[in-house]
Specification:
5-stranded mixed beta sheet; 4 helices
């Protein structure tokens, strides 16, 4: 069955130590949108479980930051540990995606559009950029996405 007739729902995460920005999109429209921000605490996995079920999501995409020269940073390692936890906790496909200063891009866009914003708005929009980049890097929609 081709994926256009069977779109997959994908949730993107912009992981932060205090908050996780969340965006959603599907493989048919390939137009991600900000969804919400979760507090990153002892309830995070339960909240993600509920979110995956509520949206019948097929995959998670997690933004992975790098230093300005492309090197791994302490934050990169922390997120890689989080991705391993997700893989152990969920049966959906889990992808990593370079996040390429997604939070900086989000803040800049909100300022340019003269929209009042808070850190939660920035985090959710950053997750949208992560998913947008994922779709760009995966132009072919396959059943395994």
């Amino acid at each position: 069955m081709d994926s256009a007739s069977n779109p997959r729902t994908i949730i993107a995460l912009d992981y932060g130590e205090k908050r996780i920005g969340i965006a959603i999109g599907n493989t048919a429209s390939r137009l991600p949108s900000p969804l919400m921000t979760l507090a990153n605490n002892e309830n995070t996995l339960q909240a993600l479980t509920e979110l995956l079920g509520q949206h019948n999501a097929d995959a998670l995409v997690v933004g992975v930051p790098r230093g300005l020269k492309g090197q791994e940073t302490p934050q990169t390692l922390l997120i890689r540990e989080f991705i391993e936890l997700l893989k152990k906790s969920f049966s959906v496909l889990i992808y990593s995606q370079d996040e390429d200063l997604s939070s900086v891009r989000a803040e800049k866009e909100l300022k340019e559009r003269k929209i009042r914003y808070n850190k939660q708005s920035v985090d959710a929009l950053a997750a949208t950029y992560i998913l947008e980049d994922f779709f760009k890097e995966h132009p072919e929609t396959h059943d395994d996405i």
